[in-house]
Amino acid sequence: MKFDFDANYFNPTDVLECGQLFRFIPHKKGYIVCSADKACYVYSDGVKTTVESDYPEYFYDYFDLDRDYKSIVGLAKSFDIPVLTHCAEVAKGLRLLRQNAEETIFSFIISQNNNIPRIKGIIERICSSLGERREFSEGEYYTFPSAQKIGEMPPGFYRALGAGYRDEYLSETGKRIGEEGIGHLKTLDEGQLKKALLGYKGIGPKVADCICLFGFYKAANFPVDTWIEKIYREDFGGTLKDRKKINEYFCTMFGKYAGFIQQYLFYGKRANL
Asked: Is 206 a catalytic residue?
């Protein structure tokens, strides 16, 4: 099954290459995207973007297609900040994904102090080792393993897959989530969720913000990394050194839409659009 959407506000390249997910590969006219135990093929002709999948309802929600991004772009421009106005316009095809929360926790534990090609490789090796092989119209893929399955494996298993020092984080957090689940996390507000996530092995402030934003769709979060620090200093004239304070600065400025704006700024500047 497939469905189409206005390409002006759904550009697959912008959505997938902005750093919010890692399980996608170029394919034919677009990309194969995997989430949890599902996959889709997404491509665009510049006028419309098409998603093909056996799970159309899942991916309609995954790509956040119920939300009016034209109004979010307009809101971003209303701050009248030159760099933000530019980034929101050139990256208006970007959308904030509604990802599987459990998968996002492990993905962003792997992401810390890492580069995207290496992150993608580690995750793919974990999926091919512990996940299930499945097929759909565009080929085969592996499901993302359950937390219980991840927790069953010792740190050395992940070290052998290239996870480095994150090996213990994956094993220990897998055990904990395998035993407790994450249902209780989904009931928390932004502040409570971030505090709770910081209690898991291998999750620091920046990773917690990413998980809140990309895994639990808490859009008031504003992850701060090297690129955001650069933007803060060069485009906002900031002088703060502490990332926690920089995070608070942007969250106060942009409120409940901070996460959308973070993505426009991060992707727009990093991709030099």
From this structure: yes
Residue 220 in 3-state DSSP? coil
Residue 49 sits at φ, ψ, to 5 deg, of: -110, 135
Do strands 133-136 and 139-142 pair parallel, antiparallel, or not at all (unpaired)? antiparallel
C-alpha to C-alpha distance for 112 and 147, rounded to whole angstroms: 19
Measured in degrees and rounded to the nearest 5, phi and psi for residue 163 equal: -75, -15
Which uninterrupted H or E stretch holds 30? strand 30-35
Query: What local confidence, expressed as pLDDT, does residue 272 receive?
Result: 80
What pLDDT, in 10s, does the model give residues 42-56? 999 999 999 999 999
From the centroid of its chain, how far is CA 58?
16
DSSP, collapsed to helix, strand or coil, labels residue 55 as coil
Residue 234: the pLDDT is: 95
CA distance 269 to 230: 9
Distance CA 270, CA 273 (A): 8
The CA distance from 16 to 271, in Å, is 12
Q: E strand or H helix at 247, and its extent?
A: helix 243-254
208 pLDDT higher than 80: yes
pLDDT, one tens digit per residue, over 109-159 is 999 999 999 999 999 999 999 999 999 999 999 999 999 999 999 999 999
| 8, 33, 88, 194 from 69: Cα distances, Å | 10, 21, 10, 26
> Which of 157, 161, 170 lies closest to 201, judged by CA?
170
Which of the following is catalytic: 92, 206, 218, 269?
206
